[in-house]
User: Fold this.
Amino acid sequence: MQFKSQAVAKPYFIAAIALFIGQIVFGLIMGLQYVKGDFLFPEIPFNVARMVHTNLLIVWILFGFMGAAYYLIPEETQTELWSPKLAITMFWVFLVAGALTILGYLLVPYATLAQLTGNDILATMGREFLEQPLPTKLGIVVVALAFLLNIGMTLLKGRKTSISLILVLGLTGLAVFFLFSFYNPANLVKDKYYWWWVVHLWVEGVWELILGAILAFVLIKVTGVDREVIEKWLYVIITMTLITGIIGTGHHYYWIGTPSYWQVWGSVFSAMEPIPFFMLTVFAFNMVNKRRREHPNKAATLWALGTGVMAFLGAGVWGFLHTLAPVNYYTHGTQITAAHGHMAFYGAYAMVVLTIISYAMPQLRGRAANSNAAQVCEMWAFWLMTIAMVFITLFLTGAGILQTWLQRIATTPMSFMDTQAQLSIFYWLRETAGVVFAVGLITYVVSFFIKGETPAN
Amino acid sequence: MINSALKNGPPGDLAIWIFILAEMSVFGVLFAVYAFDRSNQVELFNLSQATLNRVSGFINTLILLTSSYFVVRAVSAIKRNDSSACAKWLIGGMLFGLIFMTVKSFEYYDEFSHGISMDTNDFYMFYIALTFFHFLHVLMGLIIFSFILFKVIRGGYTSTEYHGIETGASFWHMVDLLWIILFPLIYVMH
Amino acid sequence: MNKTLTIIWLVLVLLATVSFQIAHLGLINKTVMLLLAAITFYKGCLVVNYFMDLRSSYWVWKASIFLYLFVVLMVIAIAYLRALT
Assistant:
């Protein structure tokens, strides 16, 4: 690595992987609870396992984004990080706050947790993905602001590149939109309207800027293609993201009580949201094809290409399948949603974090790339997790189609629970795939402990 | 084929053309959705359309056509290495763009003060949304042009280097093209 | 070159005025409407060829936008005819 302060990224990456493991453990628990409803009841009821699973996902990805920024910003700006100490302090603050929050979910009844943490002062708890107690949410704001300050000051004193500017723009957007988690109107329509200003404008908005910037950085490093070419592609991709994704928010406004014109506007714009993901895939493959060097880190290149493909499939294709209002009318809130959600999140954000870790970790450990044995192990992990995720998605899609048919379209629709009973084969298959995914994750962790290096050429 | 396409590319930056094609696609789909939605509620659409200020829309058509003409003359001027003429034509083009926005704003003011909004009915929803969406693109064009004008005045463009001007001009002509479809579709077709 | 451009501009203004006058004088019927669609297509072609200056570019660019104009106006025409029934 070029700059000493890039080392602060390492704890962030390690924490990310640790929390990822936690996320999958709770994923497996829930997968079993889908078919054996009282598994671990009452110690870890489904709704608690779900909060832990989703909150861990978001937090590990945030750790990954911050690690990515701390690694690539000094290198892009060609200057040391403004305050490595602040970065490390915030690491511990975020980690401890996160751990306490998860423990709170697990050990304390939610209503009691709300009482204990001042939810009566400002009610922010109780919404999906935003279940965190008020102090945790405030903590996240503090950590985010400190992080932006640190990165921002570094950017100001150094060389400015498109990659660093877009990354910082995306991260700033992430922080700004998180503020909407504090706005919790009593009117249910407005509640849901603004909830999506956090969730949609994150994952189908500013997070895509972060994704593009990180991927562009890794591609410059492993392919050696001209920065100008890669940065131009990046601008086109993020422009398409914003054009389609901002008004595309309307695809969440079809049925929540907002005006019906959202069915037109949301459908038209969100239908085009796959375009930037398609461009991202073409971009990644194109750059690797036109490469000017044979970088020893083959694993990172694989992750980069895989991110493009899986993001396009999960976010783009699976998203498109249920984005048009006439389709969504029937599929809304079914296992189709779960199928899309899993592949999209894994393909876009989990994989881009794993991409940057794959590239940066060896560098942080003082080598151009890991040994052949370690890389092969890591690539096994890539395939195990990715193929497993494809199967998870296929099984949930099957479940979703059957569910939509039985519960909403058939001439004599079945009740929710009766329908669920019909889906259990899919859920068992999904859980099996989930176990394979977990094996992949273990393989991934193991790859870090295989010794040796491949020198730069 | 790709090489030929790139060697003899359209005027201006390739990136803006991707943007242009994307924007045209979005508008194209919206125009189609409007036309089909109209076919389900013909009476309502015809009645509401009759309340629009067609004269105002027509004046705006002439304004935008003329603005585009001025921009074309600006590009023509820089190809002759005449920065000063280029600047004058560009200012003219921008001025007419501003007039377009002013006329449209007066139209909106009149309609809004009569209580018309996106919620009034489907026709007005499309009318407001489409013309406002177009309005924003006119504004975007003017912003792009102000950066270009600044560079023209400083002598940053020559007869061999006018890539940026062509880029902005291409975008502006798209804005004009969209209005050429929009005006007859929304204001006239009944 | 400039003379050509000025003529094109005047033709566009003329076509726009003709279209407007037809509407203003209340002469709209099915045939007239389809004629207006054709005029719109032609105006679009003029902008594409002369203002956007795509005549000198590789044929794919010109063809794409012509195709676009044709498809969009076709769809609008079909919807219009559907509305008449």
The helical segments of chain C are 2-24, 30-51, 59-84.
